[in-house]
């Protein structure tokens, strides 16, 4: 599955790209550094946006470029009443040591960045396993 990288790990600047043309739309500072590279699954147009994802890798990725990844799991995330699940992807060669640490790191990051907007309540549902994540992504591919 192809993932388009929008924001690099350790960056405190969130960059957004148009999900069809891949042209940069905007950039803005956030109150934390991204713990992992961040982007969206190309062609996964779900409702209005592609499926967001964090990418686990040892490689140095390039913002604005796609990379081939495979799903690991997905987190159910709700921004107020809006469903905005986050897929956790990895580059093919990457070996995960501790999924629980990855899950907790991402939840902490999401909670912290949304603390800038206290009018939006962030809640987390379940952690979705690899097979269900693959089915979810495939069902949302154009």
Characterization of the model:
With 142 residues, this protein is of the alpha+beta class. Helix content is 18%, strand content 39%. The protein contains 2 helices and 9 strands; from the N terminus they run E-E-E-E-E-E-E-E-H-E-H. It has helices spanning 99-114, 130-139, and strands at residues 2-7, 13-17, 24-29, 37-41, 52-56, 66-79, 82-83, 86-91, 122-128. It has a 5-stranded mixed barrel with strand order 1-4-5-8-6. The chain has a two-stranded antiparallel sheet with strand order 2-3. A hairpin with a 6-residue loop joins strand 2 (13-17) and strand 3. The longest helix has 16 residues, at 99-114. The mean pLDDT is 94.
Count of separate DSSP helical elements: 2
| Major β-sheet strand ordering | 1-4-5-8-6
Rg over alpha carbons: 14 Å
Please write the string of helix (H) and strand (E) elements.
EEEEEEEEHEH
Structure class: alpha+beta
Which spans of ≥5 residues are poorly predicted at pLDDT below 50?
none
- What is the overall silhouette? globular
Average pLDDT metric:
94
Tell me roughly what share of residues is in helical segments. 10-25%
Q: How many β-strands, per DSSP?
A: 9
What separation lies between the terminal Cα atoms?
13 Å
Give a quick account of the main beta sheet: strands, pairing sense, barrel closure. Answer: 5 strands, mixed, barrel
**DSSP strand (E) fraction?**
35-45%
Task: Describe what is shown at a glance.
The mean pLDDT is 94.
């Amino acid at each position: 599955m192809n993932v388009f990288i929008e924001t690099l790990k350790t960056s405190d600047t969130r960059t957004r790209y148009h999900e069809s043309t891949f042209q940069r739309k905007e950039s803005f500072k956030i109150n934390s550094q991204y713990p992992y590279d961040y982007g969206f699954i190309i062609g996964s147009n779900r409702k209005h946006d592609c499926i967001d994802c964090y990418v686990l890798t040892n490689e140095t990725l390039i913002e604005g470029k796609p990379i081939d990844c495979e799903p690991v799991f997905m987190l159910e995330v709700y921004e107020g009443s809006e469903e905005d699940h986050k897929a956790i992807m990895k580059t093919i060669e990457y070996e995960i040591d501790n999924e629980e640490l990855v899950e907790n790191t991402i939840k902490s990051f999401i909670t912290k960045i949304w603390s800038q907007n206290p009018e939006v309540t962030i809640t987390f549902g379940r952690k979705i396993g690899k097979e269900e994540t693959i089915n979810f992504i495939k069902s949302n591919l154009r």
